[in-house]
Amino acid sequence: MNAPETIKDVVREKYGEAARRVKAGGGGCCGPAPAAASCCAPAPAATSCCGTPSSASRGSGDPITSNLYDPAQAGAVPAAAMAASLGCGNPTALAELRPGEAVLDLGSGGGIDVLLSARRVGPTGKAYGLDMTDEMLALAQENKARSGLANVEFLRGEIENIPLPAASVDVVISNCVINLSGDKDRVLREAFRVLRPGGRFAVSDVVVRGEVPAAIRRSLELWAGCIAGALSEEDYRAKLAAAGFTDIGVEVTRVYGGDDARAFLAGQGFDDAMAAAVDGKFVSAFIRARKP
Fold it and tell me: What is the extent of the structural domain holding 122?
């Protein structure tokens, strides 16, 4: 099995486990198992979804997935959608969605960003969610039913091979998912393909600044936790340009320090010296680009 497929298997299992815990009432990736924490920080101390369902919007021990959605947004979606929120940003708040637009969320999980997008584009627009994990898709369908929104469609598939025709959407969003792919060039080419001319790429993702120790890059657990697979800002810009995008911008929205790094690395066999080595090197960012 090649490396990308190995990564994909680990990611699928992690996020399937997250959906099962939400459906069981446990919230996100958290649960009784010592290593089970947020998918974006697989550490014993990270408890992004271990409180009430809206804890992801109020703050928690997880340095990546906490404090992303305001109370108004949390109240606009089913509690299970908020509990399954495992992103690193809030792309719907930054993407400047307009009524009547068609939006695609890559790696839509429990559907929170799809449901928020559907409300923003209104009944004349459409919001698609794409996910490869059966458990997350089932949870998303339940959340759609609870929301009462009719302009929502969830698709089963992989972000490297989007099951939509060319030039079919106005905006591609994603929330801390592209970094999980083992073939980011293909993901970006596919995003470019499905966008209409003038369409917008507007994603939240983890980005790395500077060199990251090779041991972290090799860890599949940390890859599935949003960290090991993160691109540098320069690489992200270069890959977007190679896919055909223009007007590329990277806006840092959160910087992770040494304490955050300890949360990332705890339980993965890394010591405090390793955490110090990545102090400030991982950030959440909002990445914008446009299809000419």
Answer: 3-290
Q: Would you state the torsion angle of the CA atoms of residues 62, 65, 70, 74, taken in this order, to the nearest 10 degrees?
A: -100
Residue pair 200/103 in contact (Cβ under 8 Å)? The answer is no
- The closest alpha carbon to 178, from 198, 196, 162, belongs to 162
Q: Give the pair of three-digit tokens for residue 252.
A: 């840092």
Q: Which residue has the tokens 């507007």?
A: 202
pLDDT digits (tens, 9 = 90+) for 241-264: 999 999 999 999 888 887 877 777
Express each pLDDT in 260-277 by its tens digit.
777 777 766 676 777 777
Domain count for the chain: 1
pLDDT digit string, tens, across residues 110-155:
898 999 999 999 999 999 999 998 988 999 999 999 999 999 999 9
* Percent of the chain surpassing pLDDT 70: 66
Q: How big is the CA angle at 182 (ends 176 and 185), to the nearest 5 degrees?
A: 85
- Within 8 A by CB and 6+ apart from 51, the residues are 27, 58, 60
The single residue listed with the structure tokens 């089963």 is 156
